Amino acid sequence: MQNADLKELDKFSQLAHRWWDLNSEFRPLHDINPLRIGWINEIISVNEKKILDVGCGGGILAEGLAALGAQVTGIDLSEKALNVAKLHLLESGHSIDYRHIAAEDLAAQSPETYDIVTCMEMLEHVPDPASIVTACAALTRPGGHLFFSTLNRNPKSFLFAVIGAEYLLQLLPKGTHEYAKFIRPSELSRWAKNSGLSPSRLIGLSYNPITRTYSLGSDTSVNYLMHAVKPALCMTQ
């Protein structure tokens, strides 16, 4: 059984043709993309790195990483989203290897292959997010870096990410998120440690409805990103 919610896949597949429309439901992803990539590149230069983007969707993050000189592979279980991602390469001119495969299956085929693994805005949409974290860890080479982003689970995140973003400000379609699937940083950190990773940094992503801008900072109560490292192998004499 694949670690996927068919309703979630269908929901995003139905919107796939709008992935690169800056005025569509995916505008928030376009708005936060420079922040995500800037933070990643600040921690570890992506230039010439072999990167895997898990849950790549239509390729917004993947193309941003490729533009900085990374060798990017993107995987997703939505064929419609992948088709959109592949078509957009004709416009952007980037070279990205898009594949229709689950993270767990790729981890079994190609363990310890990538310098950097990213998994953004995806963990809160799958039945078993801990399994995705484990697969991401297995796909990362020793000494490599991993980046996750998701939504915290608390009353404030319900108010801001569900009521505010979906119903009041209408930044996202109603039903985009299911509050019960939100993930506390302590939970993500525990899954990372159980997968042999060392969580390193945590940073929050906030939205200002007055200026309509996003920013990174210390407030992790709603959206947050986590950086983890896969320890290098110890050499014994």
UniProtKB/TrEMBL annotation:
Coiled-coil parts of chain: none
* Gene Ontology terms, MF aspect: 2-polyprenyl-6-hydroxyphenol methylase activity; 3-demethylubiquinol 3-O-methyltransferase activity
One record GO biological process:
methylation
InterPro entries the UniProt entry points to: SAM-dependent_MTases_sf (IPR029063), UbiG_MeTrfase (IPR010233)
User: What reaction does this enzyme carry out catalytically?
Assistant: a 3-demethylubiquinol + S-adenosyl-L-methionine = a ubiquinol + S-adenosyl-L-homocysteine + H(+); a 3-(all-trans-polyprenyl)benzene-1,2-diol + S-adenosyl-L-methionine = a 2-methoxy-6-(all-trans-polyprenyl)phenol + S-adenosyl-L-homocysteine + H(+)
Instruction: Please give the pathway this protein is involved in.
Output: Cofactor biosynthesis; ubiquinone biosynthesis
Which UniProt keywords are given for this protein, alphabetically ordered?
Answer: Methyltransferase, S-adenosyl-L-methionine, Transferase, Ubiquinone biosynthesis
Q: What class of enzyme is it?
A: transferase
Q: Where does S-adenosyl-L-methionine bind?
A: R36, G55, D76, M120
User: This protein's superkingdom?
Assistant: Bacteria
EC code(s) of this entry:
2.1.1.222, 2.1.1.64
Do you know which Pfam families this protein is assigned to?
Methyltransf_23 (PF13489)
Function field: O-methyltransferase that catalyzes the 2 O-methylation steps in the ubiquinone biosynthetic pathway.
By sequence similarity, the record places it as follows: Belongs to the methyltransferase superfamily. UbiG/COQ3 family.
Q: What is this protein called?
A: Ubiquinone biosynthesis O-methyltransferase
Name of the encoding gene: ubiG
